[in-house]
Amino acid sequence: MPSRVEDYEVLYTIGSGSYGKCQKIRRKSDGKVLVWKELDYGTMAEAEKQMLVSEVNLLRELKHPNIVRYYDRIIDRTNTTLYIVMEHCEGGDLSGLLTRCIKERRYLDEDFVLRVLAQLALALKECHRRGDGGHTVLHRDLKPANIFLDARQNVKLGDFGLARILNHDTSFAKTFVGTPYYMSPEQMNRTSYNEKSDIWSLGCLVYELCALSPPFTAYNQKELAERIREGKFRRIPYRYSEELNSLVCRMLHLKDYMRPSVESIVQSALLASAVSEEQRKAEQRVRRKSAELERPKPADVPAETAAAVSMATELRLKEQRLQEREQALKDREERLEQREQELCARERLADEKLARAEGLVKTCNLVRQQKALTPLYSNEILGERAESPSPGKKKVHFAGDSKENRAPDRHLKLRNAELKKRLQAATVRAQALDLVERNYQLQSRQLLGIR
């Protein structure tokens, strides 16, 4: 029996667009929370109606843990409205996540970026190389607003409204569709393109996850098209590894045949751990489904046995969730320890720089004092040379209390004062030289330690 609009309860509206809105709903039969896209097809052109039908058919065929799950469709012919019932993603979309990161001025962890990349690559692999032998599907509108997150922060690829089916591997699409920031050069040039265009969009998306902004930005579409055709962009922040930067650069290569295929991305060493984790989850899902199929129905077993089996299953699921949470906490603790070590190293370097700066300030102050005393020292020497008699002439003094006999005493006092000032100047200069020598020794030890 086909579903009806009355079978669902509308909770609230998530968002709205030109043709309709997206609403959060609850299925009355079992209370499951879902989402439906309410689309008014009465005002659509025939091409748009065909695109809508193709999206519904795609959603029915594409079944993958990283693709938004399709549940049902309801056609209300009296109101010319189509309802597409889909999986509800509690975590929102990547666009909202990027907005929060920009507002909080924080970057995403590289492990999270790699996990998103691995899950999106697996979803695109399902689209590009259909496991059931179906035709290749191009998404053609990969962007943060079309990538959703569930409660466990797993990626769900959605919104296949602009998708196109290719009949065979040599087919090329030529339609000008998509979001300009993530469009490939071949789309900008209005030439034929294939699944490598989705790889370009994936590279733009991963770049934005790292840098919090698209690789190509401009004030108008003409300037944006020129920048995309040039293919020049900044490196992702240096907090991310060189391997990730290299993979992003390969995905954003101007020549589509130089971009990696989705299979090579999945098989890359950079994503080995993330892909193996996804494969492990897939195996667990298969085992869980097989166990549910092999489990006897409640009618065939006593009520107590059925309750015990269900309780044991719930306990196993809780234990599995606890183990996953424990592993996540361990990973987070390791990242925090690594970050603490980096902060300690930065603090040590800052202390060394501060010590060098203080030594330079002391040296500068002593040099200034020395320069201030140097003129006095030179004037005293010149005065002494001017007052001292020539070696060829000798003064003759007579006994008595005459001025000639009292002059040598005053001269000796002045000479003692001059010697004291010269001694002070020499002491200041020695201190300055001592500080300079210590500074050079500190720098030499640091250089030896670096080597």
From TrEMBL:
PROSITE patterns (UniProt xref): PROTEIN_KINASE_DOM, PROTEIN_KINASE_ST
UniProt keyword Magnesium present: yes
Compositionally biased spans, kind Basic and acidic residues: 281-298, 398-408
GO cellular component, one term: microtubule
Catalytic activity: L-threonyl-[protein] + ATP = O-phospho-L-threonyl-[protein] + ADP + H(+); L-seryl-[protein] + ATP = O-phospho-L-seryl-[protein] + ADP + H(+)
EC numbers, comma separated: 2.7.11.1
GO biological process, one term: cell division
A GO MF term: metal ion binding
UniProt keyword list: ATP-binding, Cell cycle, Cell division, Centromere, Chromosome, Chromosome partition, Coiled coil, Cytoplasm, Cytoskeleton, Kinase, Kinetochore, Magnesium, Meiosis, Metal-binding, Microtubule, Mitosis, Nucleotide-binding, Nucleus, Phosphoprotein, Serine/threonine-protein kinase, Transferase
InterPro entries, alphabetized: Kinase-like_dom_sf, NEK_Ser/Thr_kinase_NIMA, Prot_kinase_dom, Ser/Thr_kinase_AS
First-level EC class: transferase
SUPFAM superfamilies found in the cross-reference section: Protein kinase-like (PK-like)
Cofactor(s) demanded: Mg(2+)
Taxonomy, superkingdom: Eukaryota
Positions in coiled-coil regions: 312-346
PANTHER family found in the cross-reference section: CAMK FAMILY PROTEIN KINASE, NIMA-RELATED KINASE 2
Family designation: Belongs to the protein kinase superfamily. NEK Ser/Thr protein kinase family. NIMA subfamily.
Name of protein: Serine/threonine-protein kinase Nek2
